[in-house]
Design goal:
seven-stranded mixed sheet, Rossmann fold, 5 helices, single chain, alpha/beta, two-stranded antiparallel sheet
Length: 198
């Protein structure tokens, strides 16, 4: 099985269109083999966007970590005019994200980066549907290191399933953040983490 956090130059391409129905609108995204949620928009990502649309702020600087083909960062750039930066380690995902950004006529920055390795600056919001299959260490690195790239009033928004370690992640993150569970739906938790200011 090809994991979506690896790059296989020999993987064949089978483009397909997926539609996100959200906030009384529909957005179409191009997907392909070898990327996360290749056959349908992930419920966790959709829930994360949906909750943010109700409670988040518009026109903020936003970093989408592990962006895949760009659903989170592009949707929020389109609907809330966020200044979105999208990062992923998967070259094909980034290529698709560029296609999708062009299709939706949004001006976003798309960067190849393993977590925050190629990221600079600070953001008002960091969002992630973390790559669970990459392992707990990778996931926790993304969540714990977010604070280094958040403005003082910035927020980390992420989605995680209860049966994939949400509660243990929350317990660990409470050492570094103020944590709020914004939503629970179908086993998914939408979690907001704010930096503990010393």
């Amino acid at each position: 099985m090809e994991h979506y956090f690896t790059n296989n130059e020999n993987l064949k391409s089978e483009l397909r269109n997926l539609t996100l129905h959200i906030a009384d609108t529909s957005l179409t995204f191009v997907s392909d083999l070898g990327v996360f949620a290749k056959d349908k928009i992930d419920y966790g990502s959709k829930l994360l966007i949906d909750v943010y649309l109700k409670e988040g702020r518009s026109e903020v600087s936003l970093l989408d970590v592990g962006c895949g083909y760009g659903v989170i960062g592009i949707t929020l750039a389109k609907l809330l005019h966020t200044q979105s930066t999208l990062v992923d380690v998967n070259k094909r995902a980034l290529h698709l994200a560029k296609m999708n950004a062009k299709e939706h006529k949004v001006d976003v920055s798309i960067i190849m980066s393993d977590g925050y390795d190629s990221v600079s600056g600070k953001f008002d919001c960091i969002m992630t549907n973390p790559p669970i299959r990459a392992g707990k260490a990778t996931v926790m690195r993304i969540l714990e290191n977010a604070k280094e790239f958040l403005n003082d009033s910035g927020e980390l928004w992420f989605v995680m399933r209860k049966d994939q370690g949400a509660k243990s992640a929350i317990a660990k993150l409470k050492e570094q953040y103020n944590i709020e569970i914004k939503e629970k739906s179908k086993g998914f938790y939408i979690i907001v983490a704010k930096k503990l200011l010393t």
